[in-house]
UniProtKB/TrEMBL annotation:
Native source organism of the sequence: Calocera cornea HHB12733
The name this protein goes by in its record: GPI transamidase component PIG-S
Topology term for the membrane: Multi-pass membrane protein
Membership in a protein family: Belongs to the PIGS family.
Pfam families the UniProt entry points to: PIG-S (PF10510)
Metabolic or biological pathway: Glycolipid biosynthesis; glycosylphosphatidylinositol-anchor biosynthesis
Length: 548
């Protein structure tokens, strides 16, 4: 601050006999040492605060185990399979030696062709003969060893060509010299059905939902234009779920955790008009849904089909009751023996059309009993299996009587577990490699301790799925693959990583410049002035010494 020259100050100074100094910016009130101390104190505060500010605003980027992630492509999960061949009462000794050798060759070709959807299989084959040709299905329903399968050759006429009993395969031969030559192909269809395009066509693959450890199943009873009557005002869904859906969910509990919700909706009008009325050969009128109309059947804008209480993926199952003036309503079918009252929307859910008896306006409303829901919920069960990737059972294999009580056979369940385990391992490895690639490309992407822990956990779970791991059963491999998939997904979608994903350096400068520029300019100007004043003082002192 400079001295201020006023008449009052000038008079007081003259009375004291002091010289009067006018207004001058070069003559501050404070002494030089005080002024320098003030400027220095500001700069000391800045220098002390700068490390704290840098630490608090810096991005934490912990090193990722890139070498371990790069090695993931060189390792592959392998599923151990133990096959016990029981030749039973086959009397031809030469045949008992040659046929097992042929079976081993067939399985070796199967192992060599392990690629794509066919998981890598490690066979361990044991052959025995002369055992008691009793019925192996008597104890098949009780605890069976996983990854262990038995082939029973029998020459009795009571046995069909191929019969499944748990994880047992009964192979019937009419005599000792007439053994079936398609055992290898049948065993392939049972162990790796996804490798057979006949059992698993591309259309079936396209409708399988992406794997998730948790699913919500939303069952909706949807009435179209209930104001004209003939609506279903309620349904006994608990009994139907207990009888047709929950047994399937119990079998799939090792792969997914399910949450079920249900609701009844009214006035679910379609956004299009079905084709009709059309008359068949008997003169009966009906309405039809074309394939194009089935693809846009769901009116997501007006139908609230889920509660939205969680972010878990949802599979929808709609029991649609058409308006009384547009019944019966069916779907167009091109294949024989294909249902004309239901269809699947790939990776989304399924729809079943229920046509009550009332075909006229003003028909009475009904309550759907458990008996009425038997047919639709059987369809829902098959649609759920198709959406979750349960493979088709080979048509040449007959299932035993007790196995009909189980909606999914052990062969199907084991094949699904191998598929999902292999899928999880590959998706986890891809997610980890993507994380490394993103971190290398984006300098602002943080890598915190939580992300590093999730990556390490996913790598440890992947290591546990390799053949070198001590735990190599199918259930353990599946459990480790689920852990790897879950941890790698959490790391990839970690909120701490994506927070600065679209925050480039230019944005940082644009934020900090208006904050620090007004403070930095006076400090820098004061520092430059003090440096110049110090130089002039040194120069004046040097000139004074020369003159003296």
């Amino acid at each position: 601050m400079a001295a201020v020259h006023t008449p009052l100050l000038e008079g007081e100074a003259k009375e004291r006999g002091e010289d009067v100094l006018g207004l001058s910016l070069a003559h501050p009130v404070h002494e030089d040492s005080t002024r320098r101390a003030i400027v220095a104190s500001y700069w000391i505060v800045v220098l002390l605060v700068f490390p704290v500010w840098y630490y608090m605003t810096s991005i934490e980027r912990l090193p990722l185990p890139t070498e371990r992630i790069d090695l993931l492509g060189q390792r592959e999960v392998q599923f151990p399979i133990k096959i016990d061949v029981d030749l039973g009462d086959i009397g031809d000794l030469e045949l008992s030696r040659t046929y097992p050798r042929k079976l081993v060759e067939d399985l070796a070709r199967l192992r060599q062709g392990s690629s794509g959807e066919l998981p890598p299989l490690a066979f361990d084959i044991a052959i025995s003969a002369g055992e008691d040709p009793g019925d192996p299905c008597t104890d098949a329903a009780s605890g069976e060893e996983e990854d262990s399968y038995r082939l029973h050759f029998r020459t009795q006429d009571a046995y069909p060509m191929f019969a499944s009993c748990g994880r047992h395969l009964l192979i019937g031969a009419r005599d000792g010299t007439d053994l079936p030559h398609s055992v290898g192909d049948t065993l392939r269809d049972l162990l790796a059905p996804y490798s057979n395009s006949r059992l698993h066509p591309p259309a079936a693959e396209s409708r399988i939902a992406q794997y998730s450890p948790t699913y919500r199943l939303a069952f909706t009873l949807l009435n179209e234009d209930a104001s004209v009557g003939g609506a279903a005002v309620g349904w006994e869904i608990q009994q139907a779920l207990s009888q047709y859906i929950r047994p399937t969910l119990a079998q799939l509990s090792a792969l997914h955790n399910f949450t079920i919700e249900s609701q009844v909706q009214y006035f679910g009008g379609l956004t299009f008009d079905p084709l009709g009325p059309l008359s068949d050969d008997d003169g009966v009128e009906s309405w039809r849904l074309s394939e194009e109309q089935m693809s846009v059947f769901v009116n997501s804008a007006e139908w609230t089909l889920t509660s939205g209480v969680s972010n878990d993926p949802v599979l929808h199952f709609i029991l649609f009751v058409p308006s009384a003036d547009r019944r019966p309503l069916y779907t167009e079918t091109r294949l024989r023996l294909q249902r004309n009252d239901s269809f699947i929307l790939p990776q989304w859910g399924g729809v079943v059309i229920h046509n009550p008896s009332g075909h006229h306006e003003g028909a009475p409303n009904t309550l759907l009993s458990a008996h009425d829901l038997a047919g639709p919920f059987k369809v829902f069960r098959s649609q759920l299996s198709a959406l979750l990737g349960v493979p088709q059972f080979p048509p040449q294999v007959v299932t035993s009587a007790w196995q009909h009580k189980s909606p999914i056979t052990p062969w199907q369940l084991d094949a699904l577990k191998r598929r999902r385990a292999l899928e999880n391992v590959r998706n986890s490895a891809d997610a980890l490699r993507s994380i490394v690639s993103l971190v290398n490309q984006i300098e602002n992407m943080p890598v915190g301790q939580d992300v590093l822990g999730q990556v390490d956990g996913a790598l440890a779970a992947l290591d546990a799925t390799t053949p070198a791991a001590s735990s190599s059963s199918l259930s353990q491999i599946l459990a480790h693959s689920i852990d790897a998939f879950t941890l790698s997904s959490k790391a990839f979608f970690n909120p701490g990583m994506i927070g600065l994903l679209y925050y480039p350096t230019e944005h940082k400068y644009a934020v900090y410049t208006p904050l620090f520029a007004p403070v930095a300019v006076p400090l820098i100007v004061a520092l430059v002035r003090e440096i110049k004043a110090a130089r002039e003082r040194r120069r004046a002192a040097a000139n004074k010494q020369k003159t003296e």
